[in-house]
Design brief:
12 strands, DNA Primase, Chain A, alpha/beta, 5-stranded antiparallel sheet, elongated, 14% strand, 27% helix, Dna Topoisomerase Vi A Subunit, Chain: A, domain 2
């Protein structure tokens, strides 16, 4: 039996498919609820991809056409009895990050992630999803994380197998930040720092092996919620022989802090403020009131008010976590006593303590 083209093979199994350039698009065979063609298959070998390589943006899966057509499912195939002809590409191909295409993500850009960082890490946005590939320490693809761009939430991504993202960027002497999500890690890279993403607070079993020969500082910067901090404690215990510190940022996560700064500041000023905040947290610096110099850290003067209240008192810029005011000086700047409604929701319960 003579070899058939990739397109002919796909159409035998899926019927007429959508073709755009060197790619054929089919509905995801890994996700029966996929209503739009979100699985791209390479039709002819190129400098970047082998013939028959596929990338499924609905599930985050990728591989060779053989694994695509031999997957166990009961929908999509017109004739499962067809014997697959051979292709001129190997059945198993390792794909280096230099072979991946890049398609800029406006969604990530709106989250403060620079296009330079997106291009470097081969981000790919298409059909309401942004694919964020993960590579091993040698730069070879191992899994993909797909996030929805139209609403909050993740698409069907590959299992992460407890392997952190961006380990290929690390040198043994680097200061490296450990955070929960890819977007948090992208935030650090956007600001000139290095990071790894766990892709889940509890997904840290692989860290010990990855940092086995690492002698630089390891900064844990997981989410500030209970789950994040519980796992930060477990990681610190597991890496007891390393230089590990844990920092907790003012808001829930790294990207949230970065976006908050970008609301009020140009990107260059925001970067300066962001790096000052990180430096302050790493060095465990004190937090004196800007006006009276009274220490606010670990006292009832360390609190958070709503953005509009803070910016009424400090209109020149948003000093998120960098400049502090005690309760008396904040009230003096506002020209009135502090009220319960001034505080962010999870600190309202502490309002009575602040007014004692």
């Amino acid at each position: 039996m003579e070899d058939k083209t990739v397109l002919a093979i796909l159409e035998e199994h899926y019927g007429k498919v959508k073709v755009k350039g060197n790619y054929a698009y089919i509905n995801s065979p890994f996700n029966s609820s996929d209503k739009t063609p979100s699985c791209a298959v390479v039709l002819e070998a190129s400098e970047k991809f082998s013939e028959g390589f596929f990338k499924d943006f609905s599930s985050g899966k990728s591989g060779n056409i053989f694994s695509l057509l031999n997957i166990p499912h009961d929908f999509g195939l017109k004739n499962r009895g067809i014997k697959l002809p051979s292709l001129n590409s190997p059945a198993v191909v390792r794909h280096h990050m230099t072979k991946f295409e890049y398609n800029p993500s406006p969604y990530l850009f709106n989250r403060g992630i620079s296009y330079e960082v997106q291009e470097y890490f081969k981000v790919f946005e298409m059909d309401g999803q942004v694919a964020m590939p993960v590579f091993d320490k040698d730069g070879y693809f191992i899994y993909n994380v797909s996030r929805l761009t139209t609403k909050k939430g993740y698409a069907n991504s590959s299992p992460t197998d407890a392997y952190p993202a961006f380990t290929h960027e690390l040198k043994t002497s680097d200061t490296v930040f450990v955070c929960e999500s890819m977007i948090d890690a992208f935030t650090f890279f956007t600001n000139g720092l290095k990071a790894v993403a766990l892709n889940g607070a509890g997904n840290h079993s692989g860290l010990k092996e990855i940092f086995k020969s690492h002698f630089g500082r390891i900064v844990l910067c997981l989410d500030s919620d209970e789950i994040g901090q519980t796992n930060a404690h477990l990681i610190k215990n597991a890496l007891v022989d390393k230089d590990v510190i844990n920092i907790v940022l003012p808001l829930k996560d790294v990207n949230e802090v970065w976006m908050e700064m970008l609301k009020e500041l140009d990107v260059n000023t925001a970067r300066v403020v962001f790096l000052k905040l990180i430096e302050r947290k790493i060095n465990n610096k004190m937090c004196p009131c800007t006006d009276c110099q009274k220490e606010t850290k670990n006292t009832r003067d360390y609190f958070m008010v709503r953005d509009e209240v803070w910016l009424s008192a400090v209109p020149e810029e948003n000093h998120c976590g960098v400049i502090f005011l005690c309760r008396d000086c904040l009230a003096k700047r506002l020209g009135r006593p502090l009220e319960e409604s001034d505080f962010i929701e999870h600190e309202i319960n502490n309002y009575s303590n602040l007014t004692e």
